[in-house]
Design a protein that fits this description.
122 residues; mainly alpha; globular
């Protein structure tokens, strides 16, 4: 069962990593403006996600891959929290936008839990 969960996480990371190259404009919009270098960060993030998926597929490196995934997703949470803060500041009365931004943050915390579960059950 642990292998299935790790492989599923690897597939999830590959899909998201590929999205950095297939839909770079969308992903760039998620990068907080105060970080700058959005184009480079999107490319580096895509490569890192795909590289980490390889670690998750190899049983010996699975724990490391899980911890790296948890760390990367934690960094990505910053972007989603920034988006939530922007939505709350710019459009506080639009419940739909606020709900969407909140769900993105919550899902990312769930993804972190998934990665930690893979890292600790090897």
């Amino acid at each position: 069962m642990n292998s299935i969960v790790a492989v599923a996480l690897a597939v999830f990371l590959v899909v998201n990593g590929a999205a950095h190259f297939v839909r770079p404009d969308y992903v760039r919009r998620l990068v907080p403006s105060w970080l700058g270098c959005a184009r480079m960060l999107v490319a580096v993030g895509g490569v890192a996600l795909i590289a980490d998926s390889v670690l998750l597929l190899v049983p010996r490196s699975r724990a490391a891959g899980g911890w790296i995934a948890a760390a990367m997703i934690s960094v990505f949470v910053v972007a989603h929290l920034d988006g939530l803060a922007r939505v709350a500041a710019e459009r506080p009365c639009r419940a739909r936008g606020l709900a969407s931004a909140t769900v993105k943050v919550l899902f990312n915390f769930a993804y972190i839990g998934w990665a930690v579960a893979v890292a600790t059950t090897v």
